[in-house]
Fold this sequence. Notes:
Low-confidence stretches: none
Shape: globular
Strand order of the largest sheet: 5-4-3-6-9
CATH superfamily of the largest domain: ATPase, nucleotide binding domain
Number of domains: 3
CATH topology of the largest domain: Nucleotidyltransferase, domain 5
CATH class of the largest domain: Alpha Beta
Mean pLDDT: 90
Number of strands: 14
Amino acid sequence: MYEKWSENNIEKTNNMEVKKINRNRIFRLIYKNEKLSQQEIASRLGMSLPTVGQNLKILQNEGLITEDGVFESTGGRKARAISFIKDAKLAMGLDITKNHLSLVLVDLSGEILKSTRVSKVFENTPDYLKEIGVLVNRFIDDSYIDKSKVLGVGIAVPGILSDDKQMVVDSHALGLVDSNGPDFTKNISYPCFLSNDANAAGFAELWNTETVKNAVYLSLSNSVGGSILLDNQLYSGDNQRSSEFGHMTIELNGRTCYCGKRGCLDAYCSAFVLSNSADGSLPEFFNLLKKGGKKQEEIWKEYLSYLAVAINNLRMLFDCNVILGGYVGGYMEEYLDELRILAAERNTFEPDGSYLKVCRYKKEAAAVGAALLHIERFLSQV
C-alpha cells in the first residue's frame, strides 16, 4: 500500500526545501565575496544567527567552506572570517576544433589550474572518439587530483546542437552538415555537457560578474560566431541558432561566404582574413602589422571598418555591452581605442564606444566556459 501523505509530511518536505534554499543562499553569498563573517551573512540575508550557524556547520562538514582568519575587532570579540574552498570541486573543459583539442581544469572560482592543447585533426570515426576518452583520462591522471572532486567534463564544439544538447546537428568547421554528429561523450567516464563553443566562451566572460548582466559576445575566430547573454542567461533562439553573427549580411552582393551566400560578415571578419596574408599565422600577421607591413596595414584598416559596422549593428539591436573574443579578440586590447572611435562614428545615440570590451579569457575561453556549466549546476544544487 502507498503511504498517505499527511499535512505533517508536506510540512516536513517544505521545511527541508526551505533549509536547502537557505543553505544555497548562504553558500552563494560566501562564493561571491572573498571573506565574510557569520554576523555579516546573517545581516545581508536577513537570517538569524543560529540558522546561519547551523548551515555553516553543514557546509564546513561537506568540505565547501573554511574559517580563514579573523576580522579586525570593532570593540568586542574578533569575528571569524569564512571563505569557500576553491578546489573543493573541479570541472574539466574540452574544446573540439577542426585541428586541435584544448583541455582545461578549473576550480570553483573558474581559475584555470591546468591546460593543454593537442594537435588532432577531427575525424568522424570511432578511433577519434576513443582518443578523446584516452586524452581526458590522461589529462586528469596527470593533474594528480582527487578524482571524486571532478564534477564532469564540459565539451565545446563549433556547431549547432540538438534541442537536448546531446548531439551536433550541423557543423561547417567539423564537416558535419544536416546530420547528427558523433557522440563525443561516448568514451568519457564523467558526466558530460555539450555546448556550442561561442556560447561557452560568452558564458565564461560573464561568469561571477555583478556589474554586467547583459552582453553580446562576438567571437572572431576562423569563423565568426558569438553568443547572447540576457540577465546572465544564454539565449539560444527557437532553433538553437541564435548568435550566428557571421551570417549577418554586411555587404550587399559582397564576397562569397563559405555558406554559399554573398556579403556575410564571416567573409570580412574571420581570422582567416588576417592570417591568409601571413602564411596562415595569426600571430605573424600582428607581428608584421606592428612592424609596419603595408599589406597588413591595408587589410587591418578594412577589417576594422567592417567590424565597426557589425559592432554598431549589435549595439543597436541589443543596447548592451559588446565583448570581442575568439582568436582575434585576444589581440584587440591595444587596438580597442581605435575601434571604439570607428564604432562611435556610426552610432546614432552615443558619442563614444565605451560599451565595447575585450575578452577576459584570451585563450581557451570555450573550454573554460564548457567546464563552468558543471560549476554552475553544482552551485545551484548546494
